[in-house]
Amino acid sequence: MIMDCSQYVGPCSCGKDHELETKMVVVEYDALSRFEEYMAAVGLGDKRRTVVYDSNIYALTEGKHVKADQEIVLPAKGLRSEDVLIEAMMKDLDKPEVIVAFGAGTIMDFGRYPAYKLGIPFVAIPTLASSDGFTASICSVILNGQKKSIRMKAPALVVTDLDIIKGAPLRLVSSGVNDILAKYISLVDWKIATLVSGEDYCPMVAGLAQEALDIMRAAADKMAATGEVDHEAMTMAQMKSGLTMQLWSDSRAASGAEHLMAHLVEMKPPRFEKAEGIHGECVGVGTFACVKEYHRLAKLRPTARAFEPLTGDWVKEKFGERLYDGIMKENANDVLGTFDPQNIVDHWDEIVTLIDTIPSVEEMEALYKGCGCKYLPEHIGIDPALESEMLDISAAIRNRLTLIRMKRVLDFGE
Ligand SMILES: [Zn+2]
Ligand SMILES: [Zn+2]
Description:
It contains 17 helices and 13 strands. By secondary structure, the chain is of the alpha/beta class.
């Protein structure tokens, strides 16, 4: 399947003029045999190119390598997205006009970071489709020793060869399913936030995320029923979801309360030190906890409570000294203080209708089991006793309006 991305670009009913750096996304079997055609189609065919691999991928994809003016093969051992490593590689670049990154997530950052710094395009050849980051412009990189998610460059062209993707271990396939089923929560969070706080919203961007979700849901149903993995559908779902982050210049459509679980696991606050899992697995645990909590809340009727900022004591208790400053800073201009909590109460019936679009707890659990997904706290090293608290704690990690964060200004009489 080949997606021409120009259909999403331009003036929109939401009032924005949407832009995309990504012009074309190819998701096909044997796609790399036609790589030169795709490069030419996006106007990069005759540009001087550097192709970057890591040593593992280079060996594994023997016979699939693409033409290069310069090839860089980075040692796979110890490779991570870190400024010093990327900048060291940049010293070896031989005046490229385009950088092609061939590999998994880490290698992508060795394309998007230098391309951004040099002001040249970057092309992605993902060898995995376990998350939706490939078509996004976000670079998750260690800068000055601190892990940061910052906007850099999105790929001008993405060429995914399903003959490579289909070799991915099942664990990564399941993780990819999780990353997209998360949109059941992230989309509802965005719509609720728009209802109660007037936050900007785009039906086209939300629609694209919904499309990704529908494609993945159909593929997940098939996988649960027959064990068959539809790599083409699953990969396309990841690509579409990633594009929403470029179109909206923000991950709003793709990441709500559930995604914060992945950040929690990475940050490892007190009592979560043993938490461990790949991105989609952590997101799956967050999603299932939210599915349970949202349906539970939908049966109740809240009253409004005055907004109060998070206290230093609470933050210290839940996050410890090491993370205290960062969390306090993130919550300094708490989005909860920007609208009247009574709005949530006044819109509660509409909120319940939105929650009703989320599959039931039983349906989600059956789907997760059928696709071999991780979805319970103990699957990623979190004590199940921390389940209800983990949502409240993770909601403080990012100043984004989600239903979980809204609980701080609601009284459910419990
Ligand atoms: Zn729009
Ligand atoms: Zn994700």
